[in-house]
């Protein structure tokens, strides 16, 4: 089973992730992880931290000479700002220079302080910070490399920023990812990109923030990942939990999501047809992952009955505007004096929606890699790929029908 655990605080010495269950023989380098982390820093509207933050990656265990060993992988992401925070965040006995007693609405501050009996919001906010997602991106980058061995690609793009929306008749393909990453807001629609940048500038001018929506698409996922037999094995439920766990996410949709609730049943589902059998066509290639059946629409998002259908998996996730503002105006209460005040200000972005899309890619990859390993198994990458190929070879076969013996 693929599982991972992260540790570390936003301004601590480092973030650490341990990833267990990756088969032996997967090619992984520190540069692979650094490229994934560099994509997480993309996007117009990010704060000054993104300009000088450098993710110093160390592969601590589980990889030798560029190949995984089958043992747990340990990755450390050093905080280059640690010297500035060493005294404030020191694990040694002592006292902080400043106690934060004005919890910020929209953050984990107050609930965390009350839950754990703490009197300093920093004891909560450091771990609750979205900086933790850097460790997830590191783990998810390894998951994406593993999925690549069986022809699965995961990408994301931004479809809404504030009220500015993108419009596309077709889903972007894996080959479009470089163009998406080159966009200031990781949007595949150039006209919408301009409106999104203008919306960010307008919010920044008044010290406010913006939320938005990212769409994640996974291509090449074979039919049958997930299961209909138990609630906690359903692929859409697993994806929803993973994506909702990203900081500031308030809604997750699979396929058309909420929109299908307003449709008639005759229009809300994806009709099935036999694919073009020619293996040299894009449809023929894609049909090898779905048993020869294809759908021309994506209303179900590539998942039916908790299982992948072989069609592209499509999910959208909505991020609320960041609650820390460059011009603090949100009312709160000082937990010591009980007097009304305004929340304190930490360094913040105008929006983190473009980066959120990259995090969503890696969370999706972690779920799909875990389910692929559950389905195909394998202690080595070679065995994993061989099992996957054997499964695909059986998909086009006519299933045998068991005829019960007559009672005598």
Helix content: 25-40%
CATH topology type? Chorismate synthase, AroC fold
Number of helices: 12
What is the residue-averaged pLDDT?
Answer: 92
Looking at the overall shape, the CATH architecture is 4-Layer Sandwich
The total strand number stands at 17
Given helix and strand content, the structural type is alpha+beta
CATH superfamily: Chorismate synthase AroC
Numbering strands along the chain, what is their spatial order in the largest sheet?
Answer: 8-7-9-15-10
List the helices and strands and how they pair.
Layout: E1 3-7, E2 14-20, H1 30-40, H2 49-52, E3 55-61, E4 63-64, E5 67-68, E6 73-79, H3 82-85, H4 109-116, H5 122-128, H6 133-148, E7 153-161, E8 164-165, H7 177-182, H8 190-205, E9 212-219, H9 235-244, E10 249-254, E11 273-274, H10 282-287, E12 293-294, E13 303-304, E14 307-308, E15 313-319, E16 331-333, E17 340-342, H11 353-376, H12 381-395
């Amino acid at each position: 089973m693929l599982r991972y655990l992260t540790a570390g605080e936003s301004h601590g010495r480092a973030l650490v992730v341990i990833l267990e269950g990756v088969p032996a023989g997967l090619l992984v380098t520190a540069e692979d992880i650094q490229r994934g982390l560099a994509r997480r820093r993309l996007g117009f509207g990010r704060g000054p931290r993104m300009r000088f933050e450098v993710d110093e990656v160390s592969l601590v265990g589980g990889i030798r000479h560029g190949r995984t060993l089958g043992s747990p992988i340990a990755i450390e992401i050093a905080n280059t700002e640690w010297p500035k925070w060493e005294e404030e965040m020191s694990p040694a006995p002592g006292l902080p220079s400043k106690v934060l007693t004005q919890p910020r609405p929209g953050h984990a501050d107050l609930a965390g302080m009350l839950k754990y009996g703490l009197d300093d919001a920093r004891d909560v906010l450091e771990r609750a910070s979205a900086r933790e997602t850097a460790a997830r991106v590191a783990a998810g980058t390894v998951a994406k490399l593993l999925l690549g061995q069986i022809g699965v690609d995961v990408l994301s793009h931004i479809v809404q920023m504030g009220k500015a929306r993108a419009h596309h008749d077709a889903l972007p393909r894996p080959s479009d990812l470089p163009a998406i990453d080159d966009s200031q807001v990781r949007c595949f629609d150039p006209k919408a990109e301009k409106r999104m940048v203008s919306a960010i500038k307008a919010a920044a001018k008044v010290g406010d923030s913006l939320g938005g929506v990212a769409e994640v698409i996974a291509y090449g996922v074979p039919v049958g990942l997930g299961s209909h037999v138990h609630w906690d094995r359903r692929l859409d439920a697993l994806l929803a939990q993973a994506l909702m766990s990203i900081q500031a996410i308030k809604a997750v949709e699979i396929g058309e999501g909420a929109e299908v609730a307003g449709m008639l049943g005759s229009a809300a589902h994806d009709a099935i047809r036999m694919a073009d059998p020619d293996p040299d066509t894009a449809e023929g290639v894609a049909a090898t992952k779905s048993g020869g059946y294809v759908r021309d629409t994506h209303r179900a998002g590539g998942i039916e009955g908790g299982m992948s259908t072989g069609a592209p998996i499509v999910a959208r996730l909505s991020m609320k505007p960041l609650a820390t503002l460059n011009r603090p105006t949100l009312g709160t209460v000082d937990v010591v004096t009980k007097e009304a005040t305004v929340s304190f200000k930490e360094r913040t972005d105008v929006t983190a929606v473009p980066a959120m899309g990259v995090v969503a890619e890696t969370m999706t990859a972690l779920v799909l890699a875990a389910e692929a390993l559950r389905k195909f198994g394998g202690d080595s990458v070679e065995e994993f790929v061989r099992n996957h190929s054997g499964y695909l070879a059986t998909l086009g076969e006519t299933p045998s029908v068991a005829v019960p013996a007559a009672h005598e």
